[in-house]
Amino acid sequence: MNISTALFDVPGLSRPGRQSASACAPAPAKRQGVSLALEGLSKSFGEREVLKNVRLELEPGEFVAVVGRSGCGKSTLLRAIAGLETADEGSIAIGKGAIGASIRIMFQEARLLPWKTVLENVALGLPRSLNAAAATLSTVGLAERADDWPAELSGGQRQRVALARALLHEPQLLLLDEPLGALDALTRIEMQQLIEALWLQRGFTAVLVTHDVQEALALADRVVLIEDGRITLDLKVDLPRPRARGNAAFAALEQRLLGSILHQPEALRQAAAA
Amino acid sequence: MAAVLPQPLVKSTRKAARKGAGSAVGRTQSSVLAPWILPVLLIAGWQAASQLGWLSSRILPEPWAVAKAFWTLAASGELWVHLRTSLWRAISGFAIGAGLGLALGLLTGSFRRAETLLDTTLQMVRNIPALALIPLVILWFGIDETAKLFLLAVGVFFPVYLNTFHGIRSADQGLIEMARSYGLSGWPLYRDVILPAALPSILVGVRFSLGLVWVLLIVAETISAQAGIGYMTMNAREFLQTDVVLVGILLYALLGKAADLLSRGLEKRFLRWNPAYR
User: Fold this and answer.
1) Do A124 and B182 touch (CB under 8 A)?
2) Residues A90 and A199 in one domain
3) What is the DSSP secondary-structure string of A9-40?
4) Rounded mean pLDDT of A92-99?
5) A152 lies in the same domain as A163
6) Cross-chain CB nearest to B274 (options A84, A124, A151)
7) Which residues of B touch A82 (CB under 8 A)?
8) Tens-digit pLDDT profile for residues B8-58
9) Is B183 on the interface with A (CB under 8 A)?
């Protein structure tokens, strides 16, 4: 897995040479994100209420992380936004215009078709845009693996192919359902940096579901905590990017968020921070 | 991860790979020869036992006599007539049975309504051994080609049908959901996702059927045939030509092996994306 350093110099995108690297790809529209508004969203599976009257609003281009314990309903929320589940009640409004916004979702597993090459997987749904697919593949640093089978890639590489596949559709809203959950710590950090770089460059709206508090704080403008189907915390993350994890402000936010998730009383939290 | 690895480590793995390639040549040679050691030893032992007088030629003629019988039959052209007839029956019986099995398996696998309509009936029919139908088949079709093809087709149908149905049904729902969310539906979804997902299972059915076809054929050809390897063997039995009987049996073994090689070739060709088949 060779990550070109170019991926990480996000300021590099102000350089004119940056765009020509992906010359075949149509230049991404500036600030392509859409707004997202959830109103009174409820969903139950049989007797069990998974989402209870959820209300959430996202600005165009905003990056929001949804955290919570497993089974709290965060994945269902994301799948409802993606249209993979139908909500029982409430409304989901994506974008302002009448034109349907392009939404793409990344799953915890890469879900690549094993019988198609990496390049064909990226071009899924757009079989005529192989050139653009190759260009997108190179933005995730996997240009030279285009003709390999997915079985020959590592877990992190597979997720990068899945990311390229989503990005080829120029999504205005990218939904990430714990896409890095199965990766090792090092690969995860690399992927986080890649996702952040591409988000900064393309400006799509992003919703990331994760159980990793550090990941949420490293990437998101806002972190939303879901407990038992309800939003119980909406925390603005006002840290400059790129965010250093060792940073005192970062650590303080992490403590606060973890404290809320674990329901530790304030005194105990202060003791832990000290 | 290679970006993080220090350079020397990468080099040494490459060197190891090259070393592996060198010994792989020797390994392939021995792995080509190894499966044949046992048959060759068996034949040698058999020949020795016959020459030492332990085996009566009436019960089991020596391999050399079998080889001579093979040569005589081949030279007179009789062998090829029988072989051609048997091959033709096997291929057409397989084509009809497997073709129908594939078509119906795809139908019941893909459409719930077709499953409710057809599957119970098919499951009942499946439990009747194909060979138990022989008396009925003779009454229906007499003793000519149709009867033999019918038996072959019925026997071959079920392995292909069941595996096709199972393959379609066990296609990864996650992949289908993903493909739908990327705008695939209808025929493109079927062609690019569901069919390839079912293919390994379908090929298992094909492989099983190709083995079964020879078993069914030898029985079918004993129904008063005028040609074919089964006929040749039955005829030889009447005249106590044990060597010719053995030629027939060995031919079945070779044809079975050829069918197996064919189905493995199909798997290698169509499942080359799957590391288990490379």
Assistant:
1) yes
2) yes
3) -GGGGGSHHHHHHTTTSPPPPSS----EEEEE
4) 74
5) yes
6) A151
7) 181
8) 333 344 444 444 444 555 567 778 888 889 988 998 998 888 888 888 877
9) yes
| pTM (global) more than 0.80 | no
Q: Which architecture, in CATH terms, is B63-277?
A: Orthogonal Bundle (1.10)
Ordered per-residue pLDDT tens for chain B, 278 residues: 334 333 333 334 444 444 444 455 556 777 888 888 998 899 899 888 888 888 887 778 888 888 999 999 999 988 999 999 999 999 999 999 999 999 999 999 989 899 989 988 888 888 888 888 888 888 888 878 888 899 999 999 999 999 999 999 999 999 999 999 888 889 999 999 999 999 999 999 999 999 889 888 888 887 777 888 888 988 888 888 888 998 998 898 888 889 989 999 999 989 988 888 77
Looking at the domain assignment, is residue A273 inside a domain? no
Residues of A in contact with B4 (CB under 8 A): 186
Domain ranges of chain B: 63-277
- The domain boundary residue, chosen from A169, A197, A219: A169
- Rounded Cα distance, B211 and B217, in Å: 11
B236: Cβ contacts below 8 Å, ≥ 6 apart: B242, B243, B244, B245, B248
Residue A33 has what pLDDT?
A: 84
Residue A157 inside a domain? The answer is yes
What pLDDT was estimated at residue A176?
94
User: Considering only CA atoms, which of A207, A159, A120, A163 is closest in space to residue B184?
Assistant: A120
- Which residues in chain B have their CB less than 8 angstroms from residue A149's CB? 273
Closest residue in chain B to residue A191, using alpha carbons only: B1
Q: Do A187 and B274 touch (CB under 8 A)?
A: no
User: How far from A245 is each of A29, A148, A214, B201, CA to CA, in Å?
Assistant: 31, 35, 8, 48
* Interchain contact B176–A (C-beta under 8 A): no
Q: Does B276 touch chain A (CB under 8 A)?
A: no
- Mark whether A176 and A161 lie in a shared domain: no
Residues of chain B contacting A84 with CB distance shorter than 8 Å: 177, 181
How many domains is chain A partitioned into structurally?
2
pLDDT at A56 (0 to 100):
92
Q: Are residues A135 and A36 in the same domain?
A: no
- In a mutational test of the B interface, the residue from A124, A129, A165, A190 whose CB has the highest number of chain B CBs within 10 Å is A124
For residues A55 and A259, what is the distance between their CA atoms, to the nearest angstrom? 23
Question: Can the peptide bond before residue B8 be classed as cis, meaning omega within 30 degrees of 0?
Answer: no
Q: In what order do the strands lie in the sheet with A103-106?
A: A103-106, A173-177, A205-209, A63-67, A222-227, A230-236
The whole domain housing A89 covers: 27-102+172-240
Q: State whether B3 and A115 contact (CB < 8 Å).
A: no
Query: Are residues A117 and A226 located together in one domain of the fold?
Result: no
What is d(CA A162, CA B139) in angstroms, rounded to the nearest whole number? Answer: 61
Which tokens belong to A148?
A: 């390999």
User: Is A263 a member of any domain?
Assistant: no
Do A105 and B175 lie within an 8 Å CB cutoff? no
Assess A142–B contact: CB distance below 8 Å, yes or no: no
- Of the candidates A115, A125, A151, the beta carbon closest to that of B196 is on A115
Residues of chain A in contact with residue B178, where contact means CB-CB under 8 angstroms, are 107, 111
